Amino acid sequence: MVRRPVAWLLAVVLLVEGLGIAAVNWFLGHVVERQRMSMGGLDPDVMSLSSKIGGVVFGLYFLLCAYSALLVALRDRAPAGFGRVALVSAAVVHGLLGAVTWGLVGPGAFTFMIVVLALIVLLLVSYDRPETQEEPTAPQPADPAPANGPATA
Q1: Is 80 exceeded by the pLDDT of residue 129?
Q2: I need a labelling partner for 118 at 20 to 30 A (CA). Which of 41, 51, 149, 151 fits?
């Protein structure tokens, strides 16, 4: 069975990715703050704060997805409800970021994004749907005569 190891691996990868995203955005917020950079006349303090908030929110989003994958690994059941929606949205995010990273960062980042996308999709599709329909059975014919013989009155 490949389902549980994929779920464990995905949980670890999303945990590391969430912490990494938060750390990178926090660092970029500090760089903007210390350099007093401004883009298009925006206040550097607002840019710094928004970078930090965005990093924390995006990091928490990936941590939520990692938690959902961890629950799948522990329970050995398909993700359901909000966890499934979070994982599907994470797959979409990784697909879009993979398309962007090829041109901006390079093939290494693209490969990482596509591998994470593949892990998420594999986790989502590896669980079989339970069979809810039972096979119809033929009706049993009614026995007109009792087994002891004909009844007499």
Answers
A1: no
A2: 51
